[in-house]
Structure formats: structure tokens, C-alpha cells
Amino acid sequence: MGPHKNSAVVTRDSIVSLFADIKVVVAPLGIRQRPPGIRYNLWTMRSLPPVLLLTALGLFAQSTHYQEAVEYFRQQRFMEASVSARKALRTDQNNPAFLHIYGLTMSALEQFSDAERSLLRAIEIAPSNAGFHNDLGAVYLRQSKEDKAQEQFEKAVALDPDYLMARISLGRLYHNHGFTDRALEQFRDVEAKRPDFKTVHYHLGLIYLNQGDGPGARREFQIEVANHPNNVFARLELAQVLTQLGEAAAALEQLEAVRPLWPQSTRMHFLLAKAYRAQGKTAEAIGAATKGIELAPQDASGHYILAQLYQDSGDLDRARAEMELFRSLKERTAKE
Questions:
Q1: DSSP symbol at 37
Q2: Residue 288 CA: distances (Å) to CA of 137, 227, 261, 272, 303
Q3: Taken in order 54, 56, 58, 63, is the CA torsion positive or negative?
Q4: What is the per-residue pLDDT across 203-214, written as a single tens digit (0 to 9) for each?
């Protein structure tokens, strides 16, 4: 990559556009399985790395090494990005844009102490940059430091009320902590400003689902899927709700749409088993549940589903064996 003769102001919109081709999805909190080909995941905690949006608002990036780091990061070549980011910092160790991209690459490489240190220094130099606060919050969230993450997301929203991604992240944390009204406030604000913003209807659906409002959850998940057909998590939630509402055929349509996008999803196979069971297709249901257990033999819920199905088929010996496995795995999990 050659040097840039004319450096441009790095804005949130230009950077978001630059990274628009990085494939992203949104997972429920704590989920341990993700679709193939997805290196980064928005607003996720514990087992999944978050997408950290490069949002160096109003800063000049005049270094060729910086531009290389950004390009490598866009290509998800994080090791090369870190090398270029270090070279940029050697030319100006107090440039907040350089500190920012270095922090992002360190987080991508799971070097969280370095990531935090670099992003905190960037914030010290440019405290009014909402993007820096959002990205530091994402690093904290990756490590399950929820209180620190919430503080940073709140700062990002206070600095830039139209920073919709920060509002989504904040709403997720509020919902996770049981502050439903606060979560709804964030999600409704996003919906009012951008009705088609990715994941907003998915998160609204989760709130309705937790409140026991199946039809409301179905409506929100359907809107999310219509706006973003590749959001597999929204399709899985929609399939579950449809099955619960007695619409197993519609649920199967959603699950068949997930299959080519995420064939190794254990939850998809277990939901297929439930939908087939609702239709009285016991053999198909057993096949789906068995496939799910092959993919995740330590998942207790799969053995419980299979026990029910064997009981439906009259195979009581296998039903008892699966129920024993279910209880054993649940006890093991409780001890851990």
C-alpha cells in the first residue's frame, strides 16, 4: 500500500463504511456457538469477540502505517494490523487515532491489557470522542467487566445521542441486569431514528419474549428477519416462538433458512426436533435431536429432548438412558 498524498478527516461514517464488508451477526448473551466465517460479533460477551468499530471522529490520520493498519484490520489480518499500528505509534505515540487502532488490534488478538491501556490513553488525549468510549466498553464487555462496559457505553451515548450502536450495547446491558424500562428506552430510541437498524427489533423481541408476550416477540423477530435475512439468531428465536404458538410449519421454514448459513448449529437441530415433534413426526424429530447431540454431546438439553422423543415412540429403555445422561450432565454443570 503506497503513501496517501492527501490525508482525510476520519469520521464515524467513513470508517463504518470502510468496515461494512466485515461479516457480523449478533448473538444472545453468553452464547458459545457462532456461525462459520464470523470472526467478530457485535455486542457479545464472554466467549465471542465483539466487533470494535473504528470511529476516530474528526481526527487526522496522516501515517501510511496507520492506513495499512486500518486496511489490515478491515481484512481481519489482525497480526499484520498490529505490526503496522506499532509502526504508526513509533512516529507519534500521542496520536489518539494511532492508539485507537492499536487498541483494536490488541483486542482482536485477545491482548486485553494492552488494548485497555491503549484505548484509555486515546481517551485521555481525546475525551470527547464517543467512538473511543464505545470501543473501550466493547473491550470490557469481551472480558465480562459489565459495570465498566456500561460506564463507557453511557459516556458514548451522552457524548453522541445519535450513536445508535452504543445505544444497542447499553440496552443489552440494561436488559441483562434486569432494567427492562431502561433497555426499552434505548431500543425504542434506536427504532425511532433508524427503524431498520440491525438487531434493534431482535432485541425488542427478546424483551417481549422474556415478558411472556409471544405474539409481540414474533412480530419483532419477523421484522428483524425481513430487514436482515441473514440474522440467524433472530431466525432461531422466531422459530422457537412459532413452535410455542402452534405454528410448527412456519418454524420449520425459519430453521431451513438457517441450515445453509449455519449447518453446525446445535440449537437449530434441537429446535428442528421440537418443531417436528409438534407435528407428530417423531422419527424426523429423533434424527434432528441425535444430530444435535453428535455436535454437542455435553449439552444436557439435547438429551432431555431425546428422552421425551423416545418416550413418545414407546422406547422406554432409551428414554430412561437419555434422562440419566441429562441428570448427570446437569449435576456436573451445577458442581462446576
A1: T
A2: 39, 29, 17, 6, 12
A3: negative
A4: 999 999 999 999
Pick the CATH number of 1-174 from 3.30.2400.10, 3.90.950.20, 3.90.1150.10, 1.25.40.10: 1.25.40.10
In this prediction, residue 62 carries a pLDDT of 57
Is the model more confident about 185 or about 42? Answer: 185
Rounded to whole angstroms, the Cα distance separating 29 from 45 reads 6
Distance, CA of 153 to CA of 135 (rounded, Å): 9
Averaged pLDDT score across all residues of the chain? 86
Cα(325)–Cα(303) distance, rounded to whole angstroms?
Answer: 7
Which helix (DSSP H) or strand (DSSP E) does residue 88 occupy?
Answer: helix 78-91
Distance in angstroms (rounded) separating the CA atoms of residues 295 and 136? 35
DSSP string, 108-173: HTT-HHHHHHHHHHHHHH-TT-HHHHHHHHHHHHHTT-HHHHHHHHHHHHHH-TT-HHHHHHHHHH
| Spatial CA neighbour of 223 closest among 231, 23, 212 | 231
Instruction: Find out whether 77 and 90 touch, Cβ atoms under 8 Å.
Output: no
> Which CATH number, 1.10.274.10, 1.10.10.10, 1.25.40.10, 3.40.50.150, labels domain 264-336?
1.25.40.10
Which residues neighbour 213 within 8 Å (Cβ) at sequence distance 6 or greater? none
Calpha distance 186→70 (Å, rounded): 30
CB 86 within 8 A of CB 54: no
Question: What's the CA gap between 332 and 335, in Å, rounded?
Answer: 5
Is pTM, for the whole model, over 0.90? no
Dist CA 304 CA 329 (whole Å): 10
